[in-house]
Amino acid sequence: MHERSVAYMKFSLKGINVKISDRMKEHCTKKIAKLERSLSAQDQLEAKFTAVNNSVTCELTLKIAGHFYRTEANVTDAVVAFDQALDLMERKLRKHKTRILKLHHNSEGLKRFYATMAEDFAKEEDADTPKISKHKQFHIDAMDEEEALLQMQLLGHSFFAYLNADSGKVNIIYARKQGEYGILELDY
Fold first, then answer.
1. Where would I find the Sigma 54 modulation/S30EA ribosomal protein C-terminal domain in this sequence (predicted)?
2. Is pLDDT of 108 > 70?
């Protein structure tokens, strides 16, 4: 694992079945310089490379003021995977900038980040901003994980919220990419 911390932010590279070469470290460090200008020492960016068969997946996770942004790219070359994941991250940040600022979010760290990125995002159009088009209410029933999975499959949804019969808390079961399932246990 390669890790470095600069005056701006913490940046780490991890490789699973992938060797992180000096050329890769240099390339990644150079590419994140644009983001780095807007980030503080508390912000973190992690790049995780995983090789499976003939492809390399690059997962980028950016933590800004306690908020997480995650992107992923999967191609045959690690450098290209990083570049694609970073492009997706920049697009995601542009997309969410307007929403965060419109909500008058109380996170000074996010406001600072988006204020410094404003010049890079000046060309963004509001047409890309998603709109909430529907509100739905439903009764939530107490059940176990297996019953929640069955209900999700019967509805044909990719996620399902339910009241965990054991803990008494709201959980969300969701379908993962590899045909597996995950459970979000909400802590409130």
1. 129-183
2. no
